[in-house]
Design brief:
single chain; 110 residues; mainly alpha; two-stranded antiparallel ribbon; 3 helices; 4 strands; 73% helix
Length: 110
Amino acid sequence: MSTPAIQAALQQMQGLATQAAAAQPLKGGYVTTAVGQGGFGSELQASIQRINRLQKAADTKAMAFQAGEPNVELNDVMVDMQKASVAFQMGLQVRNRLVTAYRDVMNMQV
């Protein structure tokens, strides 16, 4: 998957997290996403930020390896790249499930 595609998916996930964090008016009341101390939106946002940090760390380590820095080993680069890839794929699947659930709810007959 290319970097622009990854960035586009991350931006879409961040937009969904922002929408989930906001309270939505519902016939005189408000729907909140609070669960325990934190809310669903804040947890989603934190997950997206963790995925982004993993990808940036992997990219930084790969660039350091390519530059020939002596303390960067190929196996460390590969492990970090794989961690970032798995985290992104997990985030992408969560996003897909959230979008599907949202569409299912919106298509329900009331």
